[in-house]
Write a structure and sequence with these properties.
Distance between the termini: 13 Å
Radius of gyration: 14 Å
Strand content: 25-35%
Helix content: 25-40%
Number of strands: 6
DNA sequence: GCCAACGTTGGC
DNA sequence: GCCAACGTTGGC
Protein backbone atom coordinates (compact mmCIF):
# COMPACT_ATOMS: atom_id res chain seq x y z
CA UNK A 1 0.00 0.00 0.00
CA UNK A 2 1.19 3.49 -0.81
CA UNK A 3 0.90 6.59 1.31
CA UNK A 4 0.11 10.15 0.30
CA UNK A 5 -0.51 13.63 1.62
CA UNK A 6 -3.40 15.83 0.54
CA UNK A 7 -3.08 19.52 1.16
CA UNK A 8 -6.05 21.81 1.57
CA UNK A 9 -6.81 25.33 2.65
CA UNK A 10 -9.31 24.84 5.48
CA UNK A 11 -11.22 27.87 4.19
CA UNK A 12 -11.75 26.03 0.90
CA UNK A 13 -12.14 22.42 2.03
CA UNK A 14 -11.56 21.47 5.65
CA UNK A 15 -11.13 18.24 7.56
CA UNK A 16 -14.45 18.92 9.29
CA UNK A 17 -16.19 19.07 5.91
CA UNK A 18 -14.41 15.93 4.76
CA UNK A 19 -15.52 14.04 7.87
CA UNK A 20 -19.13 15.11 7.33
CA UNK A 21 -19.07 13.26 4.00
CA UNK A 22 -18.43 10.04 5.89
CA UNK A 23 -18.02 6.78 4.02
CA UNK A 24 -19.31 8.29 0.75
CA UNK A 25 -16.20 10.42 0.57
CA UNK A 26 -15.63 13.35 -1.72
CA UNK A 27 -13.94 13.92 -5.08
CA UNK A 28 -10.59 15.65 -4.63
CA UNK A 29 -11.24 18.12 -7.42
CA UNK A 30 -9.56 21.34 -8.44
CA UNK A 31 -6.02 20.04 -8.90
CA UNK A 32 -4.45 21.83 -11.86
CA UNK A 33 -0.89 20.68 -11.57
CA UNK A 34 0.63 17.80 -13.51
CA UNK A 35 2.86 16.54 -10.74
CA UNK A 36 -0.05 16.41 -8.33
CA UNK A 37 -2.25 14.78 -10.98
CA UNK A 38 0.43 12.17 -11.68
CA UNK A 39 0.51 11.31 -8.01
CA UNK A 40 -3.24 10.81 -8.08
CA UNK A 41 -2.92 8.59 -11.16
CA UNK A 42 -0.62 6.34 -9.18
CA UNK A 43 -3.13 5.90 -6.36
CA UNK A 44 -4.93 2.65 -5.75
CA UNK A 45 -8.11 1.94 -3.86
CA UNK A 46 -7.22 1.44 -0.23
CA UNK A 47 -4.16 3.71 -0.24
CA UNK A 48 -3.97 5.99 2.79
CA UNK A 49 -3.20 9.67 2.99
CA UNK A 50 -2.66 12.44 5.46
CA UNK A 51 -5.04 15.39 5.37
CA UNK A 52 -3.01 18.59 5.81
CA UNK A 53 -4.34 22.07 6.53
CA UNK A 54 -2.24 24.70 4.78
CA UNK A 55 -2.36 28.44 5.38
CA UNK A 56 -2.60 29.61 8.97
CA UNK A 57 -2.82 26.18 10.59
CA UNK A 58 -0.10 24.16 8.86
CA UNK A 59 -0.74 20.79 10.45
CA UNK A 60 -1.68 17.21 9.68
CA UNK A 61 -5.16 16.76 11.12
CA UNK A 62 -6.54 13.54 9.71
CA UNK A 63 -6.20 10.34 7.75
CA UNK A 64 -8.07 9.62 4.54
CA UNK A 65 -8.41 6.59 2.31
CA UNK A 66 -8.59 6.47 -1.47
CA UNK A 67 -11.96 4.97 -2.36
CA UNK A 68 -12.07 5.82 -6.07
CA UNK A 69 -9.18 5.77 -8.50
CA UNK A 70 -8.21 8.44 -11.04
CA UNK A 71 -11.01 9.70 -13.26
CA UNK A 72 -11.75 12.95 -15.14
CA UNK A 73 -12.37 16.09 -13.10
CA UNK A 74 -15.52 17.57 -14.61
CA UNK A 75 -14.74 20.94 -13.03
CA UNK A 76 -11.77 21.21 -15.42
CA UNK A 77 -13.30 22.79 -18.51
CA UNK A 78 -10.21 21.95 -20.53
CA UNK A 79 -10.67 18.28 -19.71
CA UNK A 80 -7.01 17.79 -18.89
CA UNK A 81 -6.94 17.00 -15.20
CA UNK A 82 -8.51 14.27 -13.13
CA UNK A 83 -9.20 13.42 -9.54
CA UNK A 84 -9.55 10.62 -7.02
CA UNK A 85 -12.21 10.08 -4.37
CA UNK A 86 -11.19 10.07 -0.73
CA UNK A 87 -13.02 9.40 2.51
CA UNK A 88 -12.13 10.41 6.06
CA UNK A 89 -10.86 7.50 8.14
CA UNK A 90 -9.86 8.98 11.47
CA UNK A 91 -8.58 12.02 13.28
CA UNK A 92 -4.95 12.51 14.16
CA UNK A 93 -5.45 12.88 17.94
CA UNK A 94 -2.47 15.19 18.35
CA UNK A 95 -2.21 17.04 15.02
CA UNK A 96 1.36 17.13 13.74
CA UNK A 97 2.50 20.62 12.87
CA UNK A 98 4.75 21.58 9.99
CA UNK A 99 7.28 22.93 12.45
CA UNK A 100 7.34 19.59 14.27
CA UNK A 101 7.97 17.84 10.95
CA UNK A 102 10.75 20.29 10.11
CA UNK A 103 12.27 19.87 13.55
CA UNK A 104 12.54 16.10 13.09
CA UNK A 105 15.73 15.23 11.20
CA UNK A 106 14.22 11.87 10.19
CA UNK A 107 11.55 13.75 8.28
CA UNK A 108 13.66 16.36 6.53
CA UNK A 109 13.44 14.56 3.19
CA UNK A 110 9.66 14.82 3.13
CA UNK A 111 8.12 16.50 0.13
CA UNK A 112 6.12 18.59 2.58
CA UNK A 113 9.38 20.19 3.68
CA UNK A 114 11.16 20.35 0.33
CA UNK A 115 8.40 21.10 -2.16
CA UNK A 116 5.98 23.21 -0.20
CA UNK A 117 3.83 24.07 -3.18
CA UNK A 118 2.95 20.56 -4.30
CA UNK A 119 -0.62 19.89 -3.18
CA UNK A 120 -0.73 16.10 -3.57
CA UNK A 121 2.42 14.37 -2.41
CA UNK A 122 3.85 10.89 -1.92
CA UNK A 123 4.81 9.88 1.63
CA UNK A 124 7.30 7.12 2.46
CA UNK A 125 6.26 4.24 4.67
CA UNK A 126 8.86 5.22 7.26
CA UNK A 127 7.60 8.79 7.26
CA UNK A 128 4.03 7.61 7.56
CA UNK A 129 4.63 5.53 10.66
CA UNK A 130 6.78 8.17 12.30
CA UNK A 131 4.11 10.84 11.88
CA UNK A 132 1.42 8.44 13.06
CA UNK A 133 3.45 7.89 16.20
CA UNK A 134 3.94 11.65 16.69
CA UNK A 135 0.24 12.23 16.19
CA UNK A 136 -0.88 9.49 18.54
CA UNK A 137 -2.50 7.48 15.74
CA UNK A 138 -2.85 3.77 16.34
CA UNK A 139 -2.26 2.16 12.95
C1' DG B 1 1.40 41.76 3.71
C1' DC B 2 5.52 40.20 1.74
C1' DC B 3 8.23 37.37 -0.89
C1' DA B 4 10.48 33.02 -2.51
C1' DA B 5 9.68 29.09 -5.19
C1' DC B 6 7.98 27.21 -8.95
C1' DG B 7 4.81 26.09 -12.74
C1' DT B 8 2.75 27.89 -16.92
C1' DT B 9 2.28 30.83 -20.87
C1' DG B 10 3.54 33.03 -24.91
C1' DG B 11 6.79 35.46 -27.94
C1' DC B 12 10.60 34.70 -30.63
C1' DG C 1 12.81 24.73 -28.15
C1' DC C 2 14.27 28.47 -25.21
C1' DC C 3 13.47 31.76 -21.91
C1' DA C 4 11.40 35.95 -19.95
C1' DA C 5 7.22 37.39 -17.90
C1' DC C 6 3.62 36.39 -15.21
C1' DG C 7 0.49 34.17 -11.83
C1' DT C 8 -0.23 31.32 -7.86
C1' DT C 9 0.82 28.93 -3.71
C1' DG C 10 2.01 28.88 0.78
C1' DG C 11 5.32 29.84 4.56
C1' DC C 12 6.92 33.47 7.31
Amino acid sequence: MAYWLFKSEPGTWSWTQQKKKGAKGEPWDGVRNYQAANNMKAMKRGDKGFFYHSGKERLIVGIVEVIGEYRPDITDEKGIFGLVDVKAVKDVPNPVTLSAVKANTKLNEMVLVNNTRLSVQPVRGSEWSRICKMGGVTE
